[in-house]
Amino acid sequence: MPERTPETHVIDFRAAEHLLAGRDPRGAIRLLDPVITAYPENTAARLLRARAFFHAAQLRSAELEFQLVLEREPDNAFAHFALGRTLERANRPEEARRHFRLAAALEPRPDFLEAARFVRDTGTGES
């Protein structure tokens, strides 16, 4: 195998993004593993690998990876939301709700608010 360089790691990271978008999470994980070995502090690579683990239904690995991201970036709303989805999928709704609420508090996007159940029903015609 040829020697890995910073440039090849960037290429692998970008290719992993495309694989994940193309619904090949296991392929993305394979590309990201050496990137993370070379750059263990790279939060973007870890977040992408966490998403790939989630889509590959490797929930425990996804949970651990999202937690690592949150240790480094506790204000990462997306990581809280994605960890919440991971915990929800693992049938741990109370733990999931905590992360959904943190995500919504950090960034009040409609999908975060809905997951946190902060959205109120406005379809009644009442104020």
TrEMBL record:
One Pfam family recorded for the sequence: TPR_19
Repeat (TPR) residue spans along the chain: 77-110
SMART domains named in the record: TPR (SM00028)
Keywords: Repeat, TPR repeat
Entry superkingdom: Bacteria
UniProt-listed InterPro entries: TPR-like_helical_dom_sf, TPR_2, TPR_rpt
Name of the protein this chain belongs to: Tetratricopeptide repeat protein
Species, as recorded: Streptomyces halobius
